[in-house]
Amino acid sequence: MPTLRNKVALITGAARGIGADTARALAAKGAKLVLIDLDAAPLQALVTELGDDVALAAVADVCDLPAMQRAVDAGVAKFGGIDLVLANAGIASYGSVSQVDPATFKRVLDINILGAFHTVRAALPSVIERKGYILVVSSLAAFTAAPGLAAYCASKAGVEHFASALHLELAHLGVAVGSAHMSWIDTPLVQDAKADLSAFNQLLAVLPGPLGKTTSVQACVDAFVHALSRRKRRVYVPRWVGPVGWFKAVVTSRIGDRAVLPHIPRILPLMDEEVAALGRSTSARNVALDDVAVDPS
Prior knowledge:
By secondary structure, this protein is of the alpha/beta class. Helices cover 54% and strands 13% of the residues.
């Protein structure tokens, strides 16, 4: 049976949500952890909880390649190398393409796409040396778009293809690469959107079938730990996300549009009104962390 004992796993977006709970689950299985996030206080609290002999905290912005390289180098120096990478850091923006704050839209692409590249680029020499495994966190949003979330959807489709290209590049070197595709998970990202925007809740309510349902963080963590131990090519949470990907051409056709299009004239203007009232196109937590990224002092 595959074992995670004494494997060294690097996780971005590790301070909260899926990243933090995956770190706890991996530690329980004997893994060592290099944990990266901009949110210093909860990140350090997690390392204190797990123990300095098990985990290393590195406060870094995934958009900053030199900072990511320093974080990886510190992890290699402490634990000897990197076996597993979970490129998990990600954010979302709110609002239509015509109204969303352009800087926030760009920040989503920078974190979700360039952040995955920087994470992989920094860790790659050690992962190749150890013939390790990389899991890039994409989304159901790579298969089906949502109005008012264009940056998120574009970025998650982008990292899916990044992972696929990386898979082809690294297979002959003994490195496995997978992509993870989740529906709405009860993370701070989704919780913040629900709290900020009644329009987001209305959007979830009109999505057909299970597409508007929210799944537990634990279900996602269980799938990630299984994938990291088995070097899975694809991860779907819940499992019904897989068939959505297989039928992407239908989901994004006129047939797939029918369930949502009638509601857009009502929901999208409401979202833009609520975003304008908030004075921000992303969660308050992301705004605060962006300020840290601009001025890390």
